[in-house]
Structures are given as C-alpha cells and as structure tokens.
Amino acid sequence: MPDLIDQSLSAQPIEILLVEDDDDDVLLTKKAMENDQILNRVHRVEDGIEALEFLRHEGPFENAPRPDLILLDLNMPRMDGREFLKEFKQDDNLRLIPVVVLTTSDSESDIASSYEFQANSYITKPVDLNQFRAVVKSIKDYWFTVVKLPPSKVS
Predict the structure, then answer these.
(1) Does the residue 144 lie in any domain?
(2) Would 145 be classed as within a structural domain?
(3) What is the mean pLDDT of the chain?
C-alpha cells in the first residue's frame, strides 16, 4: 500500500509519486520534503510494477491520483527504474508526467540510459542529510517554481 504525506500548502495540491524500495531512503526523502514544506502529497510505491499499477489505477491503486511529478530510484527489485522508464514513456496517457531519477548511482551508463528512456532529470542522492535537503530544495525550486508542469488531464 502507498504511504502518504499530507501537507496543505496550496489550494491545488501537488501530487508526487515516489518510486523507491529502500525504507531508509523513503524516510530520508520524506524528512527532507517535510523540513522544506514543499509538497502536499507524496505517494510511495516500492518498484516499477507498483508504479505502473498506480499510474494505470490498477489493483489497490484504483483511486490513485495522477501525479504531477515522479521521483524514481533506479535499482529496485521486480522492475527497476530503467525498465519502468522504458515502458512508462511508451504510454501516451502517461508519458508527459515528468520523471526525476533520484538515485545513488553516478554510473555514466545509468545516466545515459535514463536520458535515453526520456527521464527529465537525473540527480545522484547525496549521502549527507544536509546536502540531500539542498537537493530536495533544488527539486522544489525548479519543478514547482520555475517550470510549468503539463496539465494533469490529457485531452
């Protein structure tokens, strides 16, 4: 089941899908988001299969909202982030949702394959909590202040 953080910051809540299998990384990400008070709702799934089910409103995710942004780890069981991106970006109903790869890998091949499969950004997670908070703040500043996100409903 997805985890949910609710922080009412605006009339139009920002929906984030966090695709991450590591509970410690989930906790770190949520803490960084809470401390900067940047998000209204964060939904967590543990792998690419659950992410696709969430996005397609399948199984336990029948009433899941359409996210405005996806934060994606690469190294997960069942379906990893690369496989998810490849399938996700082929779906005309979903492919406009921006995907930020947020992972510990700084491998050139991971970076190249992520962009090849049309990730919108690639960010390596810092190990230091303060640096991680700064990264999350930069995600907030860029994706929710500077950038105009695509409409939540596709015509």
Answers:
(1) no
(2) no
(3) 84
